[in-house]
Design a protein that fits this description.
Blueprint lengths: L5 E10 L12 E9 L4 E6 L3 H9 L10 H5 L7 H11 L7 H22 L3 H4 L7 E9 L4 H13 L4 E5 L7 H15 L4 E5 L6 H11 L6 E3 L7 H10 L4 E3 L6 H10 L3 E2 L9 H13 L3 E2 L7 H12 L6 E5 L4 H5 L11 E3 L12 H7 L3
Parallel strand pairs: 4-5, 4-11, 5-6, 6-7, 7-8, 8-9, 9-10
Antiparallel strand pairs: 1-2, 2-3, 4-12
Helix pairs in contact: 1-4, 3-4, 6-7, 8-9, 9-10, 10-11, 11-12
């Protein structure tokens, strides 16, 4: 195979006609396409502020360690994924080393793995060492209803759709103790006794309150309690892990290896890297392997489109300590129609793509309809 070169990077900002303050990441997104002189195009996605991430990709040279990602990668061999990743990291040290810069790197890295898979005619999970799983149990991920009654009805609908695990998060949680308990009570009532329940508290507690809620929620047998604390409150997480009768999960706010190592050191039971935030497939698989070494559970965070779902399936398939897939059930056009692949639920599971690369194709009509820039 002759060496390839990256010829261009597209950063495509997509957005629904109306965006509101609810914590729904499917209202907009940044899609990345990496072009090569061999005609192979890779696709990736960034979970960030799309306008900010687009600027990080397209920015001109300021100086040696402050340059746009596009400039860092043009002319490079897309199969040299580790080399290209390091060029992006070093080129953004001045304003990066985490945060939005790392999130933007994710989209390009994801696209590079897509290119390699297409060039070698292999699915990405095989490039990562093979599949421990060919399908993953999907948990429906959605927000709490505006009321406990609405939460109950959502739970019933999701059970009827065949989910064996459901997560409720954010929404009105944190407004009062009585409301918090009733939201969880009605979620459990709607799911019944045989479906796993996850609770995402949405950063709304201090450590003492989170410890109290963990004990109060225990009677409803949640599979885990997710992100009850501010992401910087590592001391609080250490206290919570020691005192909680429930598994504690977190990680979606982290973008660096060091951040995930700190969560592991704090004792968290479940780590949740987002492949569109942490630096792409390259870093997601590394974080997953770190959690495997510490005998913890690795579950993806993903609340975006089919591009992130596909990338999540590939890195999770290649991990021995992964068994669950976060499966966003928002009905936005970007979540449901951007990729031609729909990743259907079959007996509570979603199959890992077997096509070369990530195994996704974008619907150009959806892109044209929702493109901002």
């Amino acid at each position: 195979m002759r060496p390839m070169k990256i010829t261009d990077v597209e950063a495509i900002w997509l957005q629904l006609p109306v965006v509101d303050e609810r914590c729904d990441g499917t209202q907009d997104t940044l899609i990345v396409r990496v072009h090569t002189d061999a005609g192979i195009v890779g696709v990736g996605e960034v979970d960030s502020s799309p306008m900010v991430a687009k600027a990080i990709i397209e920015a001109p040279l300021s100086h040696a360690i402050a340059r746009g990602l596009r400039q860092c990668v043009i002319g490079q061999n897309p199969l040299d994924i580790a080399v290209v990743w390091e060029r992006m990291y070093q080129g953004t040290i001045f304003f990066g080393r985490g945060g939005a810069a790392q999130q933007a790197i994710s989209g390009i890295d994801m696209a590079l793995w897509d290119i390699m898979g297409k060039a070698l005619n292999l699915p990405v999970y095989q490039l990562l060492g093979g599949a421990f799983h060919t399908r993953l149990r999907a948990y429906a991920s959605n927000l709490f209803g505006d009321t406990p009654a609405a939460t109950y009805e959502q739970a019933r609908r999701l059970v009827d759709q065949g989910f064996t695990a459901v997560k409720f998060g954010w929404g009105p949680m944190g407004q009062s103790e009585a409301l918090d308990i009733e939201l969880v009570r009605q979620a459990r009532a709607g799911l019944g006794e045989s479906v796993d329940l996850m609770i995402d508290a949405g950063l709304c507690y201090d450590a003492s309150t989170a410890i109290r809620r963990a004990h109060q929620f225990a009677e409803f047998r949640p599979f885990w309690l997710e992100e009850p604390l501010h992401p910087d409150d590592l001391e609080g997480y250490a206290r919570l892990v020691q005192a909680s009768p429930l598994r504690i999960a977190a990680g979606e706010q982290e973008t660096t290896i060091q951040g995930f190592q700190a969560l592991l050191d704090a004792g968290l039971d479940v780590l949740q890297p987002d492949v569109a935030r942490v630096g792409g497939v390259s870093r997601a698989i590394e974080i997953g392997r770190l959690t495997a070494q510490r005998r913890r559970l690795c579950v993806n965070h993903s609340y975006k489109t089919g591009v992130s779902i596909a990338a999540s399936l590939h890195f999770l398939a290649a991990l021995p300590n992964a068994s669950l897939l976060e499966y966003c059930v928002e009905q936005s056009a970007l979540r449901q129609t951007l990729t031609r692949q729909r990743f259907p639920l079959v007996d509570g599971y979603v199959e890992v793509p077997q096509e070369p690369g990530l195994g996704v194709d974008l619907d150009e009509e959806v892109i044209a309809r929702h493109r901002v820039a």
